[in-house]
Specification:
alpha+beta; Aminopeptidase; about 25% helix; about 30% strand
Length: about 220
Amino acid sequence: MTAAADRLAAHLRSQLGAWPPPGPLLVTTSPERSRPGWDGSVRAVAGMESPEGAVLSVPAEAVEPLRACGDDLGAVERALADVLGRPGARLVRSVLRWTGEPAPLPRLGEEVDAEDPRVPEWLRPFAGEVLVAFDDDGRYLAGVGRNRHDRWCTELAVGTEPEARGRGLARRLVATAARRVLDEGAVPTYQHDVDNAASAHVADAVGFPDRGLRGLWLV
C-alpha cells in the first residue's frame, strides 16, 4: 500500500506542481497547465483537496493574485473568475479514489483495440487497448478504459450496458484492470462525481475506499 501511496503522491506533484499540501491551501503552478491531457484538452486549473489541506494549480500569471486572497479555498474560489478573466467560472469537485489492494474478484474481460468496431463510442478516446466483456455472441456488455496520465498513475473508467447491469461485471473488470496497473508499476485511480452513488458502490466493492480526496476542476 505504501508503494501505491508514493506513486499517487509523485503523480500529484507532477500534475499540480506540489503534493502534499503544506497547510490549508497552496496555490501553485505546473507545466501541465498548458499541456493537452490524455483527451487533448488543456486544463488551465486543476487541484486536489484532502482532509489535511488543498493544492490548487493555476496558470503561472495567476499564482500571486490568488495567493493574495490568503489560504482560504473559499476566498480563492470567489476570486478565480476575475483573476482568470473567465466570467462565471467556478470549481467543481469529484471524488478521487485509489488502491494498492484491489478486491480479489475473479478476472474478467479481454483486451481489444479501442478502435475495434464492437467497442462503444465512449471507450474510443482511450489510447491503445481497452478491457471489455462480451456476451456469447460477441456483443459488448461492459468495458474499462485506462487513462495513463503518467508513469505513476493510471485512471480507470468503467461503463456497463443497461441490460447487463446487476451482474457484477463492472466490479470484476475494474478489479482486473487495477491488478494490471499495479503489475505495471503504477497506482490505479478511480474518479467519479460526488453524487454518483452507482460509481461509488462499484469503487467500494472493488477496494477503492473514499479517503477524502476531492479533485478540483474549473467549469
